[in-house]
Amino acid sequence: xxxxxxxxxxxxxxxxxxxASAIGGFSLIEVMVSVLVISLxxxxxxxxxxxxxxxxxxxxxxxxxxxQASSLASAMYSNRIFWANRTQALGFASENTxxxxxxxxxxxAAILADGCNAAACTPAQLAxxxxxxWVHSIASALPGAKSDVSCPQVADDVAHNCLIRIxxxxxxxxxxxxxxxxxxxxxxxxxxxxxxxx
Length: 198
Fold this sequence. Notes:
Layout: H1 18-23, H2 28-78, H3 80-83, E1 90-95, E2 98-101, H4 123-141, E3 146-151, E4 162-174, E5 184-196
Antiparallel strand pairs: 1-2, 1-3, 3-4, 4-5
């Protein structure tokens, strides 16, 4: 009986089956799909962040407009002798820091330099000083601020309401439902209305 043994081939020369190499790592297609999914997730998150910042700014401007309108309403309440007991229609309009009275009852030229703080004012002068201070306040708080305030003549059968309208320029994100358009920053005029009974 012969004592011969069959030589064992070196491991380097053994061919591994095909599935062993497939399990061993990722293919280029898998890596590209993973990168695509991650990129879409990042783009979606960025879009949400931009929309959130835009909405926060929009809410802030609208809150400021509401507070400014309430501020003028408070000034009207504190000077009811002028605003409530009117025998003619009152009103004014403003753009930025300039306001123009649409009624001779609001003496624009009679605004005192100190805003009626030191000298005694008539109700009409106090109203003009209040309006002047208010117009400067909204001009510094809102971009492209405009206002239009109108109070009809008081009569027995007419409500004593005044209408305060504040307008400003607001930037927002245009999220069109069309797939062919891209969301872009857009600006437009927005308005806030408040009815007041002094």
